[in-house]
């Protein structure tokens, strides 16, 4: 008996959910009618669109002629806050995410521990960073503390979820081999699981570092510190050349982080 996998040589249409053509026309018409009604409910004022295009043109002109000097002290302070929040929040988020991710792996822990850790992950992932930042700004006031807590909380759900999924998908043969030697739970975790998930964890941490820096520019708009507050102030004052300079700095830093993380991931793998 041959064990070779055979693949189809011709494409076949997947089965249709609605075999009756009349029902397909009804569903398509309903979707089209919904889209038309949804577009009509937007209440678009074309005069405002024209005014917005004019403001957008001024912003593009300022972006093409960035001003790094007139507000450099504010830009530097906001940039330092963003980098500080990004680095510290990522480190704290990773340190908290590792035990939660381990507890969220079904193949490692009992069901009660699994349920608690998965609940923590679900709560962290259910709220967008900007919503968390609004609540924390109301609690702690304006400043980078609210941004640091926001990014740390968001990092927990992101890293712990993916780490738990990776642990559940590891090669079980290596775990069985370590357990066959009489190793305990901590030894299995150290010698069988860590080597398989560590490169992935480092890659996720670097990716989250990139995300946290970009999110620091967003949550700063609601008062959580960072370069986003400086950007919001520049836009409110119609200083589009300074806003363009801030955006260029953000783009350059994100590109450097992307290239650096890609090189580091290739080196570790």
Describe this structure in words.
This protein is mainly α and 269 residues long. Helix 3 (72-103) packs antiparallel against helix 8 (185-219), helix 6 (144-168) runs antiparallel to helix 8 (185-219) and helix 7 (172-180) packs antiparallel against helix 8 (185-219). The chain has a single domain (73-268), classed as MetI-like fold (Orthogonal Bundle). Helix content is 77%, strand content 0%. The model has no long low-confidence stretch (mean pLDDT 84). The chain crosses the membrane at residues 23-42, 87-109, 130-159, 243-264. This is Phosphonate ABC transporter, permease protein PhnE. Residues 79-259 form the ABC transmembrane type-1 domain.
Summarize the structure.
Helix content is 77%, strand content 0%. The protein has ten helices and no strands. It has helices at residues 21-40, 46-64, 72-103, 111-126, 129-140, 144-168, 172-180, 185-219, 227-236, 240-268.
Question: Any key phrases for this structure?
Answer:
single chain; 269 residues; mainly alpha; MetI-like fold; transport; transmembrane; ABC-type phosphonate transporter activity
Instruction: Assign a percent range to the helix content.
Output: over 70%
Number of self-contained structural domains? 1
Name of the CATH first level: Mainly Alpha
Q: Classify the fold: give the CATH topology.
A: MetI-like fold
| Overall pLDDT metric | 84
Strand content: under 5%
Please tell me the CATH architecture by its name: Orthogonal Bundle
Shape: extended
Unreliable sequence segments: none
Number of strands: 0
- What's the assembly state of these chains? single chain
């Amino acid at each position: 008996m041959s064990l070779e996998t055979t693949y189809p040589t011709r494409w076949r249409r997947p089965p249709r959910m609605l075999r009756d053509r009349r029902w397909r026309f009804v569903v398509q018409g309903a979707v089209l009618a919904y889209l038309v009604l949804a577009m009509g409910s937007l209440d678009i004022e074309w005069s405002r669109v024209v005014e917005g295009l004019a403001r957008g043109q001024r912003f593009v002109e300022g972006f093409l002629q960035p001003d790094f000097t007139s507000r450099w002290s504010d830009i530097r302070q906001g940039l330092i806050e963003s980098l500080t929040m990004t680095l510290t929040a990522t480190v704290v988020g990773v340190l908290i995410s590792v035990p939660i991710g381990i507890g969220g792996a079904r193949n490692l822990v009992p069901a009660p521990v699994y349920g608690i850790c998965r609940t923590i992950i679900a709560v962290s992932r259910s709220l967008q960073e900007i919503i968390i930042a609004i609540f924390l700004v109301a609690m702690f006031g304006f400043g980078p503390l609210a941004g640091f807590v926001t990014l740390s909380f968001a990092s927990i759900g992101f890293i712990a979820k993916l780490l738990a999924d990776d642990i559940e998908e590891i090669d079980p043969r290596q775990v069985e081999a370590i357990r066959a030697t009489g190793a305990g739970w901590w030894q299995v975790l150290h010698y069988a699981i860590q080597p398989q998930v560590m490169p992935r964890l480092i890659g996720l941490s670097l990716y989250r570092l990139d995300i946290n820096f970009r999110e620091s520019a967003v949550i700063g708009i609601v008062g959580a510190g960072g370069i986003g507050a400086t950007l919001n102030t520049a836009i409110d004052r119609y200083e589009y050349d300074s806003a363009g300079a801030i955006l260029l700095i953000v783009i350059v830093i994100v590109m450097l982080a992307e290239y650096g993380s890609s090189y580091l991931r290739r080196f570790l793998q």
